[in-house]
Amino acid sequence: MTQPQRSTMQKTTFKISKMDCPSEEQMIRMKLADLKNIHSLAFDISNRNLTVFHTDNHDQIFRRLDNLKFNTLFIDSVSADNYTTTTDNTNQERKLLWQVLAINFFFFVLELTTGFIANSMGLVADSLDMLADSIVYGLALLAVGGTVTWKKNVAKSAGYFQLTLALFGFIEVIRQFIGIETIPAFQTMIIVSTLALFGNGLCLYLLQKSKSKGAHMQASMIFTSNDVIVNFGVIIAGGLVYLTNSKYPDLIVGTIVLSIVGHGAFKILKLSK
User: pTM to 2 decimals?
Assistant: First the structure.
């Protein structure tokens, strides 16, 4: 009896210029999830590279990636006969991501509540940015199991929810721009944003402490580092509100952060396509 021919393992590398945060990584994972010939994916976020270990040819993989419109380029494909499946720290990383998600969601509630009380769109917008992070982390956790269709439905619901919140935020910014001059409580802006800054700093510490080489963990660190910049922006806006006795620094920062949140919502919605 003849033995069935074993497919040769291939190591194919792609350059993906627009892959720079957890949203793109999740899109790629979901786009390739149902290809049975893929054994593993290795993401290099800093260099925008994706290495795929697979059998058969790479044509279908490239077509899937190209459909995402992330400026995907084929680099090379070589034999990977010495490929072995490596063990991972999935449970430990999942626990860590749950901790980071919880911190982000707590500060979403805190900033949203105090933002409305202090009449600060900067705080409200920053709270939605925290929620956006929670959604991305939640999608990463929820996508571990379930069918591709289920994952896409979760992404669609989360994306539309985030987009709706961003639109309501823009409406409120416009209302305050054309409305009666109401000065935000700069003290609340500075204090709460400082607390959120410590919260993001804690998230960053936990992520760095894990020393995980996983791309999704490294992407999370990049994501959280960007949040620290947003926190500083709201703190500076609070100082400018005090110095100028004007609502406009708060509204300008709020508009910028809401734009980031809206852009993130469109990224998540791409997951459902």
Answer: 0.66
